[in-house]
Amino acid sequence: MDRLSLRVRDLKPSETLGITAKAKELKARGIDVVNLGAGEPDFPTPENVKAAAIKAIEENFTYYTPAPGIWELREAVAEKLREFNNLSYEPGQICISCGAKQSIYNALQALLDPGDEVLIPIPYWVSYPAQVILAGGVPRFIPSGEDYKLAPEILEENVTDKTKALILNYPSNPSGVTYGAKELGEIADAIIPYDLIVISDEVYEYFTYDGVRHVSFASINDEVYERTVTVSALSKTYSMTGWRIGYSASPMDVAEAISRIQSHTTSNPTSIAQKAALEALKGSQGRVSEMVKAFDERRRFVLGRLRGIEGLECVKPEGAFYVFPEISGFEISSSEFSSRLLEEDFVATIPGEAFGSPRNFRISYSASMEDLVEGMDRLERFCRRLGER
Predict the structure, then answer these.
(1) pLDDT at residue number 38
(2) Could you say which of 109, 219, 282, 329 has the lowest number of CB atoms within 10 Å?
(3) Claim: this prediction has a pTM higher than 0.85
């Protein structure tokens, strides 16, 4: 008898975390690696946020809290959702989790029965399929257009009598594309007749460029609100990736189910991190706009360099902090491309296979400008050599 369950035998570790770990290992060995694979800001956590955590420790705020988080943090999230997302939630509809990843996992556990299908547009964040499988569901992948966006008619073509939910991620990791109100309305019109639930992963909501304003899916209308689980986190917005604080906001019955699930898994997120998160939401927001401005400059720089590299094509991202070039001019897979780029020129990127797109690779421009300049120089040299072979 195999001691491992069927649902984990083919489960692979997160490729993004694996490549980031490999890049850090090479650096620790003294190799000059440029890490353009990491999906986290290079900015430090704001000082006021760190001070709030230190204060929590000094005041011995180190015990269990309610499983869905302390009430004042849930109130702060509700206030943020009203002001930024145009969404009205009560604190009881919000569950604070150990990152957006856990929020999505909780939602899938709350919603899926064995065999339920979940629609996942390609390209997708690496953990969606695994999380669906772990919840007993079946991932059903939907192709996107050349702009990497979900077309409503393609969505409808992929709905079956087993389809329960859609995972919608925007601004997108890995492509950086996002959706406006009209596009979201068209997606809403497509899902409502089939009674689908949408898990809307909006963790990059603050990172939009070129005048684009983020619109939350649940804000489209009341009917959409009642069938949406909105997920976000403080990880990217406040450079708090290691603090592990995310949240979900959902209809009350779903929120209560999510809280019950969390009470039997992790219980509450770290008490200290919750106090830090409260300060992040209630304190000065100047660092957020500063970071978004810096990332926009880096985005423009990386796009400009990519357009000058023969063999690569790239859709212009309007959000997040990634570009997703297509290796159109090379007859190799993105896995081989990224592997050789790391081995030969010591630049870490994420191959598109991890996102369901074997002809692309992901570059994160959340790295420092110094690393981006060096990384683009090395990438250009690598592609030039590759084209000569």
Answers:
(1) 86
(2) 329
(3) yes
